[in-house]
Amino acid sequence: MQPVLTPALQKQNGIRAQIYRHYGPNERHLLGHVDSVVIVGEGITGNAFVSERCPAVYLEPSALGDEYAPHLRPVGHEKKHLMASGDWVYSDQPDFAAHFKGFLKLHNRYEGR
């Protein structure tokens, strides 16, 4: 099972990963303006630093239960119900492979008010 990372445990550095877009950049997605993110949280070590051009994301367990894969969501949007945007996150850095198995879903689409 993959570790669950929470925003309260975030650090200012972590693992840099690229966003693979399903439809291309989308201004309606919270991270539609960036091409990469930094995965932060407990137990995550890496040499990438969080910035405006490379915001922090954390791993959140699926609301459907443990049998479903966790997903990434942007730090600072914990109160919003975010949905999968069709975008995925991956990195070829060894730190990524040590923590995660393959691509991770990115929940950065907000619908509602």
Structural features, described:
This protein has 113 residues and is mainly beta. The chain has a domain at 15-65 and 80-105. 5% of the residues lie in helices and 35% in strands. The protein is built from 1 helix and 7 strands, in the order E-E-E-E-E-E-H-E. It has one helix spanning 94-99; strands spanning 13-20, 36-39, 48-49, 56-60, 71-74, 82-90, 104-110. Strands 1, 2, 3, 4, 5, 6 and 7 form a 7-stranded mixed β-sheet that branches. The longest helix has 6 residues, at 94-99. The chain is globular and about 35 Å long. The model has no long low-confidence stretch (mean pLDDT 83).
Our count of helices gives 1
Q: Which structural class matches the secondary elements? A: mainly beta
Quote the distance from N terminus to C terminus: 34 Å
Q: Mind describing the biggest β-sheet?
A: 7 strands, mixed
Backbone CA Rg: 13 Å
Task: Write out key terms for the chains shown.
113 residues, mainly beta, seven-stranded mixed sheet, 7 strands, 5% helix
Kindly summarize this structure in a few lines.
This protein is 5% helix and 35% strand.
SSE blueprint and pairings:
Elements: E1 13-20, E2 36-39, E3 48-49, E4 56-60, E5 71-74, E6 82-90, H1 94-99, E7 104-110
